[in-house]
Design goal:
- The structure is a single chain.
- With 285 residues, the chain is an alpha/beta fold.
- The chain has three domains: 1-30, no CATH class; 38-92; 120-284, Nucleotidyltransferase, domain 5.
- Helices cover 43% and strands 13% of the residues.
- β4, α8 and β5 form a beta-alpha-beta unit.
- The radius of gyration is 31 Å and the shape is elongated.
- Residues 99-108 have low confidence and may be disordered.
């Protein structure tokens, strides 16, 4: 329009004054190109995110949306909101149903919290039945600080002897020079194995303090109890073992996965192995 007015001998200023509009109205408008933000550059579509979520859920079928979001960040370098992951998992039918506790018991005494690894261990056992074979017992020890399974024994028997085998493996794992003068506390229940003379004498020789939970209070050993629940929910209940060897091999593989690959919300979504190494480096600094 500015060019046409010039041809007719009319100035832009005069035309603007006559019409009562700003002179800028007679010039063509050029829109500024919108700059692409960093967020838009890294944006992933719902279709692409759904594919990644499906892959993550196939690898970790029992993880909820919180852990899947962490896995997307750790293993796929995808940063998305927890709300978005939750929405897509619901849409895909991949959300996990939380199991509700049927019984909540108030703890009479809360054991002190450790400030570093190898201060307090918890030990207990669970069992599973194999058709045609009988019971298979799993004795395990967990470090309360980093949630690592530091030692275990899987056996068709559950005597004090088998409990001591699990303890011996834990000591070789975390205390290669022995436990004397290390101030180690071992929390156990009041079962026949940890209250046996054989077990008590061995702990005295190793200079380990035995801390027994009160009767009918499994929550005092909550960390090892929670591990056994997780072991059953994620491994044992999903498999039909045909032989003892098959069961032992599969459960041992899961314990290795639990220590080195399974992230824990209580550990800031690190694995027990990562949290343990982090604490070692921190204490060494």
């Amino acid at each position: 329009m500015a060019g046409e007015l010039k041809k007719q001998g009319i100035s832009i200023k005069d035309a603007a004054d006559i019409l009562g509009v700003p002179r800028s109205r007679f010039y063509p408008r050029t829109r500024k190109k919108k700059e692409t933000t960093k967020h838009e550059q890294n944006y992933i579509t719902d279709k692409e995110l759904s594919a990644s979520i499906k892959t993550a859920c196939n690898r970790y079928p029992l993880y909820g949306y919180r852990r899947i979001r962490i896995i997307l960040k750790r293993e796929y370098n995808i940063s998305v909101s927890q709300k978005r992951v939750h929405r897509i998992m619901n849409k895909l039918g991949l959300s996990q149903q939380r199991l509700k506790n049927r019984r909540v018991v108030q703890m009479k005494e809360r054991p002190s919290e450790p400030s570093k690894p190898n201060q307090i261990w918890e030990m207990d056992m669970t069992k599973t039945y194999l058709n045609g074979y009988g019971w298979l017992y799993i004795m395990a020890i967990i470090d309360r600080y980093d949630r690592s399974i530091v030692g275990y024994e899987i056996n068709s028997r559950a005597r004090a002897t088998e409990w001591l085998k699990a303890f011996d493996k834990a000591v070789k794992n975390r205390f290669p020079n022995g436990t004397r003068d290390q101030g180690l506390i071992l929390q156990v229940d009041n079962g026949c194995q940890p209250t046996s003379n054989t077990f008590i004498k061995e702990m005295a020789v190793c200079d380990v303090t035995l801390l027994y939970s009160a009767y009918a209070t499994p929550e005092h050993n909550a960390h090892i109890e929670r591990f056994f629940r997780t072991l059953k929910e994620e491994e044992i209940y999903y498999n039909l073992y045909e032989t003892y060897n098959e069961a032992i091999t599969s459960i041992e593989a899961y314990i290795d996965f639990y220590n080195n690959n399974r992230i824990h919300s209580a550990l800031g979504y690190l694995t027990p192995a990562e949290y343990y190494q982090q604490s070692i480096l921190h204490n060494a600094a």
